[in-house]
Amino acid sequence: MRLTHKQFRELAAKHGLPVTHQRQVVYEAVIASHRHHSPEDIYAAVRRRIPSISLATVYNNLRLFIECGLLREVTPHASTLRVDGNLEPHHHLVCSRCKSVQDIEGDFIDLKRLSRQLPGGFDLSQPLIEVFGLCRSCSAKK
User: Fold this and answer.
1) How many angstroms separate the CA atoms of 39 and 54, rounded?
2) What's the rounded Cα separation, in Å, for the pair 122 and 136?
3) Does domain 91-140 match CATH 3.30.1490.190?
4) Please, what's the largest Cα pairwise distance for the chain?
5) Which residues of 93-118 are buried (b: 16+ CB within 10 A; e: fewer)?
6) What is the full per-residue pLDDT of the chain (142 aa) written as tens digits?
7) Is 128 exposed, middle or buried (0-12, 13-18, 19+ CB in 10 A)?
8) Exposure on the CB side of residue 8, measured as CA atoms within 13 A
9) Burial level of 123, CB count in 10 A (0-12/13-18/19+)?
10) Can you tell me the distance from the alpha carbon of 43 to that of 58, in angstroms, rounded to the nearest whole number?
11) Residue 107: DSSP 8-state
């Protein structure tokens, strides 16, 4: 999905972000595919359009997009940052070996029941299930 400049301006304005060319290209690189990108993946894609961009600029913009809710951080406990442009409710399949992440749709949680079981004062903001196992490729290599 490629946003027009106008669409990105509107989205950024809605979240109080100044619009820059670099910021738009970074965001487009994330939402252009359905993968869960690392900053290095995004950096490689963005450098084809903006050769002078730095990895730090990519990281800074990704963190900003996550803070503003334009992107989601995937597996925040993993050793490397991964971002997801799919903001619709969904869950993830995570390969324990290669660390690939795939979306899985479905309602796996009874949120009302879960809310009743939470410790006092815990505010459930974004229920997300991560199912760990081996992807098809890694399973074949057993």
Assistant:
1) 11
2) 37
3) yes
4) 51
5) bbbeeebbbeeeeeeeeeeeeeeeee
6) 456 678 778 888 888 889 899 999 999 899 887 788 889 999 999 999 999 999 999 999 999 999 888 888 887 666 678 888 887 788 888 888 888 888 888 777 777 888 888 888 888 777 778 889 999 999 998 7
7) middle
8) 19
9) exposed
10) 6
11) -
Handedness of CA 8, 14, 19, 22 (dihedral sign): negative
Q: Is-contact 36 74, C-beta < 8 A?
A: yes
The pair of structure tokens assigned to 115 is: 């809310």
Q: Could you tell me the residue ranges of all domains in the chain? A: 5-84, 91-140
- 88's tokens: 């619709």
Exposure string over 54-89, b if 16+ CB within 10 A, otherwise e: eeebbbebbebbbeeebbbbbbeeeeebbbbbeeee
pTM: 0.76
Class of the CATH-defined domain 5-84: mainly alpha
Give the CA distances from residue 118 to residues 19, 114, 129, in Å, rounded to whole numbers and listed in that order: 39, 6, 16
